[in-house]
Prior knowledge:
The complex is a heterodimer of chains A (225) and B (318). With 225 residues, chain A is α/β, with parallel strands linked by helices. Chain A is built from seven helices and ten strands. In chain A, 32% of the residues lie in helices and 24% in strands. Chain A has a six-stranded mixed beta sheet with strand order 6-7-8-3-9-10, sandwiched between helices. In chain A, strands 2-1-4-5 form a four-stranded antiparallel beta sheet, with helices on one face. In chain A, β9 and β10 form a beta hairpin. Chain B has 318 residues and is of the alpha+beta class. The interface between A and B is medium-sized, with 28 and 25 residues.
Amino acid sequence: MIKFDQVTKRYESGNDALKNVTFEVERGELIFLTGASGAGKSTLLRLIALIERPSRGNIIVDGRNVDRMSLRNVPKHRREIGIVFQENKLLKDLSAFDNVALPLLIAGANTQEMARRVRAALDQVGLLKKERKKPIALSTGEQQRIGIARAIVIRPKLVIADEPTGNLDPWLSLEIMKLFGRFNDIGVTMVIATHAHDLIKQINGRRIHLKNGEIVEPNDEALVF
Amino acid sequence: MNDTNNKRKIPRFSPLFHWMKLHKENCLQALFDLGKQPFNTSLTIVVIAVALALPTSLNILIQNGQNLSGGWEGMRDFSIYLKVGQKIEVAKNLAVELRQIDLIGSVELKTSDDALEEFRDSSGLNDVIDALNNNPLPHTLVIRPKNSTSLEYMESLAEELTSRQEIDIVKLDSQWLERLNAILDFLKRSMGITAAMLLLAVIIIISNTIRLEIQNRSDKIEILKLLGASNGFVRRPFLYIGFWYGAIGSLTSLIFLLAGGFLLSQPLEKIIGLYESQLQLLGLDKWAVLTLIGGGVIAGWGGAYTAVNRHLHKIEPQ
């Protein structure tokens, strides 16, 4: 599903966020990206979503070499990935329903299908009864679940999540991780960047550990921040 | 696997239907968004309306000026007074000769008898006229040059005719009208330049307003781009905001012009009446209305397009 081959990302400041990173993610895998702040987790996810381009190396996502993808094709690439953010990035003036419907609206889904899928996604995250609420009327945990519903509403093959439990309490964090586990059970490839090492132990997935922009073997010490 | 793929596939509208649906939604949403900030929107619209109304009102003024000078075309006429006692045949021959000149539109012969009858009717001095032994009035030719005929030609023709033995006086007094036409031509060009400058100002006003809108909505734009929205999808709402600014601005300018016309028509008609003129005041015809609204809409859309192209690409997901 994802292949990084000798990928380096160097910023204009000369700082290497990623150094010769090589790994593969199989279809249907659940991957936890771990590492300290500044290790390169977010950069790696940004490269998958083409928010940034690699300085060197090749990135293949779902069979397509995305590092050379033209700007014109970037929106289509992003439409095929579900993205979950730490700060949920919901539109304040839209209801939960409309926020979740955005990817379908962009994709041109017909109205009946849109309503059906949005309600199904809200049901999956347990917020169907709050579809008319605006983000401000929802708790932080509920907002994050709306963000997750938005990511899965297009039924993507791949979901990437950047610190999705960073702002949540331990109980809610476990709920969110279990939710990701359920999506993975139905065949969605998941790549989750997280600091929540205690949660990782409770969910069945593979770890890719980053340190100073390089993949290293994870050890217990590495998970203590 | 095929079953999974089928579940993932999103049943979509046809591309054309989807495109039309988005346009309709964006168009209405843009109008709704403008309504959410009534004070700021009204200020911008009034500025646009004034900028569009100024050249249009100037144009109406010039058209009325041209109409007025057109009504005075008769004053470009010049009269040839033959010497008293000349035979009617002399006047007729001269009329035939003058009609052959291309630059002359018409030649009207007024015989001395016609002139005396006219004088009798208008003066009421029947007894005095009856007491005259012979007709003291000359035969007269009234020459109306064609519109394209220059003042210089008319002056040279008058000079040539004056030197003829059978002619007493040639009366030519249309230089002031030429000056008026020259002023109107100058104003017309000035109006064109002013209109172009004010249209540019409208484009800049709308462009700047859209730039602020883009800045205010940068979070939303970033999220939409992250979710895979194309540039067209992100751009469209802003183009419709520009469209509405232009359309409502031009309609408001139309209201200003109609109100101005209504307030000024009575005093103007009074002035015209005092001069006993038959002049009809010109207002906005349907083409002027269409040009005004079309110009406003194009300026609105153009201003928005300029701003969007300049500023949208700067907002990328972080």
